[in-house]
Amino acid sequence: MDHILRWIEPKQQIEESRKRFSNNYLKRMIIPLFIEQLLLMVVGLADTMMVSHAGEATVSGVSLDTMIYTIFILIFSSLGAGGGVITAQYIGRADRKNADMSASQTFRIAGMVSVVLMLVMLAGGNTVLHLLYPSVDPAVMDACRTYLHIVILSFPANALYNAGTALYRAMGKTSVTMRVSMMMNVVNIVGNAIGIFVLHAGAAGVAWPTTISWYFAAVVMTILCFQSENAVSIRMPFILKGNREMSRRILHVAVPNAIEGGLFQAAKVVLGSLIATFGTAQIAANGIGQTIWSLAAVIVSCMSPVFITCVGQCMGSGDREAADYYLWKLMRITTLLSFLWNLFILICLPLILPLYSISEETRRLLIIIVIIHNVFCGTIGAFFGPMSAGLRAAGDVRFTMYASILCTVIFRTGMSFLLCLGFRMGVIGIACAMVMDWALKAILMMIRYRSGKWNQHELI
After folding, report:
1. Which of 156, 218, 241, 305 allows an S-S link to 114, with CB 3.0 to 4.6 Å?
2. Residue 371: predicted pLDDT
3. Distance CA 121, CA 278 (A)
């Protein structure tokens, strides 16, 4: 254990008095986030299995809507993350009034944007569905309409929940967000079971529990965020009255993040159309592979909020050396944990594969693409998500956006088409293009880090 603790320490040290986050504090942040992300994966699998009992039309309709719904979730999470970065910096500066103002304005912006988007989609949702899926089966389209019109109603709740979780993560209180997430998922699973198996309500039986669970979580998080005994809290006067300068600071971080996430999702839709041209075995391998990939990337997903909290608070206090120290320390921790977790998933792969009734060809392809993913995710996974979050927390939002657009949207998409169509590598080409994207992003992030320009920005 002592050897591991020595390894995660960067060579460039700072005084003990400037180390804001002890190893125990980091552990108390990371473990709840890991559990939260892992539970989301388990709940997602349970949802998929339950939805499959509602019929193929419902399954297809929900899956098609998910691609649209995910874009809005990314927008709301980006707004929350933008507010979280600014709030973390004010926490680091020990400026309670502006921290409260930042948190309150994040709620205000999230609420206003979500209501506008909800009204737009309620008015134009049918048009969007017909434009995206003009030749879909009528039964599937009915399920699409039903599901989308109901989950659109959850937009305000989704936005406020993301704002609240970002605030609590900025304070380092990840155990709170974990418990709220657990309660939300229980509501969702129980609701799905009632809607599908008891009420036999089809797409509506899946959509209403999702919407209700979001509102439940949003109400809980909002109540918690009003608690004045916290290091930061939201205040009703600050929410009701707009603050242009604070809103500009939040959007300065949130907008590039939203653009990055939106383009990433658009690229996934484009690649989905490419994968749809492959044979059945390759499509099945990719679909199952995506699930295992998501499970393997749990560490990478859970570490990004930790980077935002630590780097953001250090930058807010004006201690750039401490921000550098924690960025690199967290990179080492992420790499170690991600390596061990991806190795564990590979060891468990022989136990996971029998859960799926698939052909030998699908099994062979699945093993190959999971090995490709896990080898690279376990070694350079810290660069393509967590390190970007750390740079954004320091204010380097434009570089991370441009790097993601270059690597993921342009390079990854282009290489996917080249490897799949030019070299006829199929789903293996998709996996290779993905890890090549990560490798390019790792190179760019290291160049940016070594340049020292990443922590020369001022957000507050």
Report:
1. 156
2. 97
3. 32
pLDDT at 167: 95
Question: Is the CB of residue 305 less than 8 Å from the CB of residue 169?
Answer: yes
pTM: 0.90
Q: How far apart, in whole angstroms, are the C-alpha atoms of residue 443 and residue 441?
A: 5
Residues 222-257: pLDDT tens digits?
A: 999 999 999 999 999 999 998 999 999 999 999 998
Confidence (pLDDT) at 343? 97
Give the DSSP letter string of 182-220: HHHHHHHHHHHHIIIIIS--THHHHHHHHHHHHHHHHHH
Residues recorded for the chain = 460
Which of 325, 441, 314 shows the shortest CA–CA distance to 383? 441
- Residue 263 carries which side chain, given as an amino acid letter? L
Of the candidates 175, 263, 167, the residue with the CA atom closest to the CA atom of residue 223? 167
Q: Which two tokens stand for residue 340?
A: 């061990």
Could you give the CA distance from residue 372 to residue 374 in angstroms, rounded to a whole number? 6
Judged against a pLDDT cut of 90, whether residue 265 lies above it is answered with no
**By C-alpha distance, which of 379, 371, 396 is closest to 442?**
379
Task: Give dist(CA 165, CA 217) in Å, integer.
Answer: 10
Cα distances (angstroms) measured from residue 398 to each of 54, 233, 293: 44, 29, 28
CB neighbourhood size of 124 (10 A): 11
**Does 2 have pLDDT greater than 80?**
no
- The position carrying tokens 């507010």 is 83
Token pair listed for 206: 């899946």
Q: What is the C-alpha separation between 400 and 389, in angstroms, rounded?
A: 8
Q: Which residues contact 304 (CB under 8 A, 6 or more apart)?
A: 385, 386, 388, 389
Please choose, from the candidates 250, 262, 264, 263, the residue with its C-alpha nearest in 3D space to the C-alpha of residue 395. 250
Which pLDDT score, from 0 to 100, does residue 58 have?
Answer: 73
Residues 420 and 430: beta-carbon distance below 8 Å = yes
CB 287 within 8 A of CB 356: no
d(CA 189, CA 206): 9
